[in-house]
Amino acid sequence: MLQKQTSVPFLSNQNRDSIRSLPLFDGMLDSEKDEFLGKARLKNHVRGSYLFTQGDNVKSFYIIQSGVVRLFRTTPGGDEITTDILIKGDTICERKVFRYNTLHPDYALCVEDATLLEFPATWLRESVRKNTVLSLNILSILSLRSLLKDIESEHQSTMSTAQIVACFLQWMCSIHGFDPRGFELPYNKSLIASRLGMKQETFSRTLPRLRENGIDIQGTHVSFQNFNEVDKYTCENCSFMDDCRARKMMRDTINPASLAANA
Amino acid sequence: MLQKQTSVPFLSNQNRDSIRSLPLFDGMLDSEKDEFLGKARLKNHVRGSYLFTQGDNVKSFYIIQSGVVRLFRTTPGGDEITTDILIKGDTICERKVFRYNTLHPDYALCVEDATLLEFPATWLRESVRKNTVLSLNILSILSLRSLLKDIESEHQSTMSTAQIVACFLQWMCSIHGFDPRGFELPYNKSLIASRLGMKQETFSRTLPRLRENGIDIQGTHVSFQNFNEVDKYTCENCSFMDDCRARKMMRDTINPASLAANA
DNA sequence: CGATCGTTTGATCCGCATCAAGATAGGTGG
DNA sequence: CCACCTATCTTGATGCGGATCAAACGATCG
Predict the structure, then answer these.
(1) Nearest 10 degrees: CA dihedral of A239, A244, A250, A256?
(2) Is the CB atom of residue A111 positioned under 7 angstroms from any atom of strand C?
(3) How confident is the model over A24-52, as a mean pLDDT?
(4) Residue B132 pLDDT > 70, yes or no?
(5) Does B157 contact A156 at a Cβ distance shorter than 8 Å?
(6) Where are the alpha helices (DSSP H) in chain A?
(7) Is the same domain home to B128 and B234?
(8) Which pLDDT does position A263 carry in this prediction?
(9) Which of residues B145, B169, B198 is at a domain's end?
(10) CA A55 – CA A73 distance, rounded (Å)
(11) A230: Cβ under 7 Å from strand D?
(12) Which CATH number goes with the domain that contains A179?
């Protein structure tokens, strides 16, 4: 069967389309997107391998196609701090690329086998110089990220561990498109705990309290039992308020009619 | 006495020069800088007034000329979280300007009488579209800010309150150009405490421990007594390591010869 | 079927928050 | 110049949340 040759031959049409729809490319022409994507190389990484380690030069920018990547730092004392856990569609290093002459402050470890699109950092910098839309998209992505970081550190000082976990589970649904009424955790609990800056024992101890507040967790299966109660337990104690994408998503799930009504 | 008319008439030459040298304008021509500055309005705010409050539209971008501005959020529970304290040369809202259709998540309160340059947000967005250098500068500023936030939240989970305070004092010197061998706190201790996410009582209790580790604080007067000890106490427990501007600055103060040697 | 990894549960400890009371300093008016 | 006031800071006593240390439990796998 004859199929039109794409300009990004190493990607399946489906993968190409899902990448084209990333926020990074908002408002760009398909031809521009593909020109950009054409500069990438598709690489496979096995579980346990590193994309880069602390002290490496920042050489690339990545888009995750599949798999799970954990970013973490280490202190000289030996503590590991997980700064992020990334999956399909997430980008890596879009921030560092714009700080010149610096080294990677963190490690990027593939927690699961992963496939990534890899772009030369210099090339991203040049593209930004040439393409205004791309540069505004990155500005917007960076500012959102940085806002979310602020919210998270607010939570660290105003919320209990259980509330933090509840908030995270909501975000998980929002970002990864899981159905809050029932989904499986995409990676293990100790990883989540470290991502949230707590010990796995502490994480474990939050589970009974979550059950009391509308979230049931059995093994890796999570299901939101009572949306209002969860909202009251977490979101009503957060300054993010109505601006929170995860909160909106939860509301739309509980009351899909409001979506249709807007149409 | 005849003086050459500047293109930014409402600024004294001295003020204009100090603003021209902000990182925001790195690599731009003086004429470009002045064109940009020409769009600003100079405004005075008395102590206790707000630049904006939670829920306002994001209408402006600011550069502080003098005074102290405190940014903080409030949770529905009534907690106030100080997210930043800004003084001369600092910019406000350079992040929010690039998130469309959002409201201010926080309050900006003048803790001291303040003078600010105020730019329409739309105008900054347009300038970025036209001026590549400006857009790269903002990308670089945003990525640095976001990195510093990461470091701070790392500290929250790996350092004691005393270590956090010690680190903050180093940064204070670095950012504001204070001499670590002796300087005055530019605002009061309870503000610092809230900025660092701790209670003022806790802050107060760190002081004896700081003295043991090379930092003497009497009233508002701070003096670093033993640079090596401070470094060992804080920086050697931080993953930022050699990339830390504050740490570098401290080293150069203790050993200015190394600066000359590089020349 | 034991070995290993991830998770849960239990007991204890420590750091910071909280509540409460002094101490110090700057400012005002008599 | 001193008495008083208020804001800021320090010090003290107590309690709680999460970390730590330790052990048991459960699932997966050779």
Answers:
(1) 120
(2) no
(3) 90
(4) yes
(5) yes
(6) 13-20, 30-37, 121-130, 132-158, 161-176, 189-195, 200-212, 227-233, 245-254, 257-262
(7) no
(8) 41
(9) B145
(10) 11
(11) no
(12) 1.10.10.10
pLDDT band at A46 (very low <50, low <70, confident <90, very high): confident
Report in angstroms the alpha-carbon separations of B233 from A197, B106, B162, B163, B230: 22, 33, 9, 7, 5
Residues B140 and B81 in one domain: yes
A82, A103, A138 - which closes a domain? A138
What is the per-residue pLDDT for B46? 86
Residue type, B198: M
Give ∠ CA A99-A103-A108 in degrees, rounded to 5.
105
pLDDT band at B193 (very low <50, low <70, confident <90, very high): very high
In a domain, residue A258? The reply is no
Are B179 and B136 contained in the same domain? no
Burial of B18 (0-12, 13-18, 19+ CB in 10 A): middle
Beta-carbon separation of B239 and A105 below 8 A: yes
Same domain? For A105 and A163 the reply is: no
Both tokens of A256, joined, read 């899909």
Looking at the predicted structure, is the pLDDT value of residue A5 above 70?
A: no
- Rounded mean pLDDT, B84-107: 85
Verify that A183 and A105 share a domain, yes or no. no
For B116, the domain range is 13-145
> Quick one: average pLDDT of B234-248?
87
For residue A44, give the nearest of A118, A101, A107, A102 by alpha carbon: A118
Residues A93 and A179 in one domain: no
Cα angle B152, B157, B162; round to 5? 75
Total Cβ atoms within 10 A of residue B76: 11
| β-bridge partners, A220 | none
Question: Are A129 and A168 found together in one domain?
Answer: no
Encoded tokens for B231:
């470094």
Residue B1 lies in a domain: no
In a domain, B5, yes or no: no
How far apart are alpha carbons B17 and B21 in whole angstroms? 6
Residues of chain A positioned with their CB less than 8 A from the CB of B96: 143
* Order of strands across the sheet that contains B69-74: B50-52, B107-110, B69-74, B80-86
Q: At residue A122, what is the residue type?
A: T
Work out if A203's Cβ lies within 7 angstroms of strand C.
Answer: yes
Q: Tell me the two tokens of residue B93.
A: 């809202």
Residue of B97 and A79 predicted with greater confidence: B97
Query: Rounded mean pLDDT of chain A?
Result: 87
Query: Which of A111, A225, A240, A67 lies closest to A167 in space, CA to CA?
Result: A240
Nearest CA in chain A to B153: A153
In a domain, A9, yes or no: no
pLDDT digits (tens, 9 = 90+) for A110-122: 988 889 999 999 9
Q: B210: part of which helix (H) or strand (E)?
A: helix B200-212
Which nucleotides of strand C are protein-proximal, with an atom < 7 A from a CB? 6-11, 15-20, 25
Structurally, how many domains does chain A consist of?
A: 2
pLDDT 10s digits, B19-55: 898 989 999 999 999 988 888 999 999 888 899 998 8
State how far the Cα of A19 lies from the Cα of A33, in Å rounded to an integer.
9
